[in-house]
Fold:
Amino acid sequence: MNEPMEKYLPIGTVVLLKGATKRVMITGFASISPDTGKRIFDYSGCTYPEGFFDYNQVCVFDHNQIEKVFFKGFVDNEELTFKEELKKKIAELQNQQTEV
Structure:
């Protein structure tokens, strides 16, 4: 039985999104939609292995859009502490959005 994939995978994780043919490397978290400035996506990333060519190529996506993990990024105590803080901040942002 497959275990559920942990939400908020580490920076550097390489994934394939559902329906995609090109892999993406996770480069950030809690990205705000460039279109509306209101929606918060779980991740931001860039194409792999090319990386960023310019800021218009940032990919934003949610955890449930990940089909497959090819490589999991580096995890240490600093990353684990950051992830706990990230979850708190995201909860705060989501609460602020529902209050508006």
Notes: Strands lie at 14-17, 23-32, 40-47, 59-61, 66-71. The chain has one helix and five strands.
